Amino acid sequence: MKQTTPQWVISSGVAALTVALLVVDLHTPLGVANHILYLGPVLLSLLSSQRSYPFIISGIVTVLIIVAGLMSENPHDLPLWVPISNRAFSIWAMWVPVWYFRQRRDHELLLQRMNTELEERVRDRTRQLALVNEALVVEITERMRTEHSLEFSRRELTRLASQLIRVQEDERRRISRDLHDDINQRLALLSIELEGIQRQLPALTPSLTQAIRSISDRVAELSEDVRHLAYHYHPSILDDLGLSIALQRLVEDVGSRNHLETRISCHDMPATLSQDIATGLYRIAQESLNNVVRHAKASRVDVALAQSRIGLTLTITDNGVGFLTDLPRTESGGLGLLSMKERVALVGGTLSIESAIGTGTRLQASIPLMEEA
């Protein structure tokens, strides 16, 4: 409790009032309850901020009440218990407010101390929260910076992967053209020269004739292999006639070479299709069919290419042995399942594979055609 009255004023008032009451009490006969007025200086002492001051004054006043009672006259010959009980009551009435205010002041001090501790805890917690908040801000800033860096790296990797695929396809196209226009033409000329040698030298021995014919047959086989290799690197039909015709040729070729029952359907194809999408879908179909031939042990393959409201969808289904889709495989020399997903993702599409042991496999590549629609 904060003291608003100076201590010397309180002490002076208490002393003057106590002396005055003592003088009055000494000159008042027993039986007059003027000693209850001693409660005045006691209540005045409660204004002091010193905790022990009210108790000191109460003790002094208690002694004065007893002394004054012993020294006062008893003209009416009152029974002794009457003045004793009166003064005892006055002493009790004096100490009750002292005790009450002492308890109240202790509670106020305790409450003040608790408030102080609470405020200190709040300040400490506020400082801790401020530090935590600063740490969170730093962490969030670093995380955002890292995420931006990762996003930039992801975009850069996507750009580089797309550029790499374009460069790869350009190189495949160049190699295919060189094989078809250069190597295959030379082999054709070599075959023609061998036929010319046979016509110019009719008197050749049968063994030599057979050797030349064997060489000519091998040159023809080599020419066919070179033509097929050139087509495998990059089918010119894809650039000339489009994706639908190229897929039909691919499916028919795979079926005839590997004794597979095949079926292909192309519906609602867009009039124009970007080279990236056409090449990507063709390569995915090519790799998927290669996987069917190598691993599926299938007897039938169905290929469907159709345009829907969500874009262009390529679906390849076989009746082979199937595999566990949670264990993706990446075959050497091909795109592999993971690479197919990456390739279709480069053109904004998705790739899904459904398969299980003994139930065959269903591969579906979906690519949006917002620009082409």
From TrEMBL:
Record-listed E.C. numbers: 2.7.13.3
Required cofactor(s): [4Fe-4S] cluster
Catalysed transformations (reactions): ATP + protein L-histidine = ADP + protein N-phospho-L-histidine
Keyword annotations of the record: 4Fe-4S, Coiled coil, Cytoplasm, Iron, Iron-sulfur, Kinase, Membrane, Metal-binding, Transferase, Transmembrane, Transmembrane helix, Two-component regulatory system
Any Pfam family the entry gives: HATPase_c
Source taxon at top rank: Bacteria
Enzyme class of the recorded protein, top EC level: transferase
GO cellular component terms, semicolon-separated: cytoplasm; membrane
Primary site of residence: cytoplasm
Residues forming coiled coils: 150-200
Segments passing through the bilayer: 7-24, 54-72, 84-101
Location(s), subcellular: Cytoplasm
SMART domains the record matches: HATPase_c
Function: Member of the two-component regulatory system NreB/NreC involved in the control of dissimilatory nitrate/nitrite reduction in response to oxygen. NreB functions as a direct oxygen sensor histidine kinase which is autophosphorylated, in the absence of oxygen, probably at the conserved histidine residue, and transfers its phosphate group probably to a conserved aspartate residue of NreC. NreB/NreC activates the expression of the nitrate (narGHJI) and nitrite (nir) reductase operons, as well as the putative nitrate transporter gene narT.
Protein name: Oxygen sensor histidine kinase NreB
